[in-house]
């Protein structure tokens, strides 16, 4: 069965700074008409920075949409469509934590809510960290801390880290590092 839906009409409902909300009319695989509301986003990166001592750099940051301080890995949106994923990851990592990696490993894509969000997050593992000054955005307030990677895995499995990209990134990185050992 062909599962592809074909857009026949698209209406921009809201054009924001970060997100753009659309309502599309689509032709469904069975030929009928359906509607899809979704958010377009330029894309983002996230990084699991692991020190030589096996600690992951994490951040505590207030997230307005869920009204909570969450524990997350460093992340940020692309500055423009088509920006190089690795360059964006290196920028975000340095800006938020001051860390500069010797090695940056692409761990693939993460789609957090593909039914309604077009946001594609490219995930990276960063190793061999050296440190310089961070350079936070004007409206960015966060607390950086370290946690042994095995404890971060346990925190994910216990449900103590609810952020999806952080869960996925930590588990992917742990498995990749485990297979290297």
Task: Kindly identify the CATH topology of the largest domain.
Answer: Nucleoside Triphosphate Pyrophosphohydrolase
Total helical segments: 3
Order of helices and strands: EEEEEEEHEEEHH
Can you tell me the number of structural domains?
A: 2
Low-pLDDT windows of residues: none
> Shape, please?
globular
The biggest beta sheet is recorded as: 4 strands, mixed
Strand content: 35-45%
How would you characterize this protein structure?
With 181 residues, this protein is of the alpha+beta class. The protein folds into 2 domains: 6-41, no CATH class; 44-180, Nucleoside Triphosphate Pyrophosphohydrolase (Alpha-Beta Complex), CATH 3.90.79.10. 22% of the residues lie in helices and 45% in strands. It has 3 helices and 10 strands, in the order βββββββαβββαα. The protein has helices at 85-97, 149-157, 164-180, and strands spanning 6-15, 19-27, 33-41, 44-49, 55-63, 68-72, 75-77, 99-110, 121-131, 142-148. The strands form 3 sheets. A 4-stranded mixed beta sheet has the order 7-4-9-8, sandwiched between helices. It has a 3-stranded antiparallel beta sheet with strand order 1-2-3, with no helix packed on it. A hairpin with a 5-residue loop joins β2 (19-27) and β3 (33-41). α2 (149-157) crosses α3 (164-180). The chain starts with 5 loop residues before the first strand and ends with a helix.
